[in-house]
Amino acid sequence: MTGAPAMILAAxxxxxxxxxxxxxxxxxxxxRGKPLLQYHLEALVRGGxxxxxxxxxxxxxxxxxxxGAGGGEWPRIRYSSEGRDFGFALETAGGIxxxxxxxDHVFWLAGGDVFVPEFEFRREALxxxxxxxxxxxxxxxxNPPHNPGGDFGLLADxxxxxEAEQRYTYSTIGLYRREFFASxxxxxxxxxxVPMLPxxxxxxxxxxxxxxxxxxxxxxxxxxxxxxQLNAP
Length: 233
Known about the structure:
By secondary structure, the protein is α/β, with parallel strands linked by helices. The chain contains 7 helices and 13 strands. The protein has helices at residues 36-46, 60-67, 82-86, 91-99, 123-132, 197-205, 224-231, and strands at 4-10, 30-31, 34-35, 51-56, 76-81, 103-111, 114-115, 136-141, 152-154, 160-161, 167-177, 209-213, 219-220. β4, α2 and β5 form a beta-alpha-beta unit. The longest helix has 11 residues, at 36-46. It is globular. The N and C termini lie far apart (43 Å).
């Protein structure tokens, strides 16, 4: 099997979602009758993605029990089990670096705890990014009430910047090239915990980070209240 063209981040503890996440990993919390993670899997299949990597840590065995090896209505799934290998989650960049041997040279990345039911993981977008030569391409969304200041600005030429009069929120969905993680040990064999922001800022500094605005439905399911709002009749 060749490297997967997509990775879903599902290793976090979900502290703000407690007590719900004391017994259920956050990506398995149900929105409108389906686990959050399932929406991404179904969207990836619609986009023609046959293989995906899911990283796990907190209650990761529950995710593996729920989705198994995938297939059928979902992509084939391989797991990067940080909890089994190290006993803890490796943070975003550390977890991706750990999974790189399972991934294609360019790949989609999505957080497993966002609800974005209409997003399209289009092959054309992946191919266009691969041809661009950039290290990463982010999908930004209008700022939600819990992040009014946003994360990144967007220049007219498509480059992302940190400082801007108008900033948007990173949706947790993006396209990445393996070289984006070149500063980390290949495969992260020591289980280093590495956050994502310093790598994004380095890419901005080198004019290697592009972005676009996505205006479809999007929710960071970060609190029980937001989950209740999504599930309200």
